[in-house]
Design a protein that fits this description.
Blueprint: H1 11-15, H2 19-43, H3 50-72, H4 80-114, H5 116-122
């Protein structure tokens, strides 16, 4: 039975990873890594808002991870529904991790605010009103 070459059926292009494609992936990932290292060594110390560094490094990490998944797991050559079935649970999992980190941080702040040990430290005798007798 012959195989029909349709957009969702790219077995010829994904069956072999040629040396040229591997080197292209290597150079792209190396360039992203060099940009990250340069940013970390030269630029990150001069930025007034430290959250910009976190956003930059996180976005570069997602770019590298996405590129690796697209090339080496051949997700780039799959049909759209297959890509969605991988990406939607990934996005939900990232939301899950962020939500639990925020909840843990909130719990930690509430615990440090209302723990009995800290309440006793925070108790200060109320100042006496002026003109009152002891």
């Amino acid at each position: 039975m012959s195989e029909v070459n349709t957009p969702g059926n790219n077995h010829a292009s994904e069956s072999t990873m040629t040396t040229a494609r591997i080197w292209r992936v290597f150079w792209i990932l190396l360039a992203i890594t060099v940009v990250e290292v340069f940013w970390g060594m030269k630029i990150s110390h001069h930025i007034p808002y430290k959250w910009i560094n976190a956003v930059f490094f996180l976005s570069m990490t997602f770019v590298k991870a996405g590129y690796i998944v697209a090339e080496f797991m051949h997700l780039r050559y799959e049909v759209t529904n297959m890509i969605r079935s991988v990406l939607i649970p990934l996005v939900l999992f990232i939301w899950f991790v962020v939500a639990f980190c925020m909840d843990g941080d909130s719990w930690l702040n509430l615990r440090s605010r209302y723990s009995p040990r800290d309440v006793e430290k925070a108790k200060v005798e109320a100042p006496e009103a002026p003109g009152t007798l002891k």
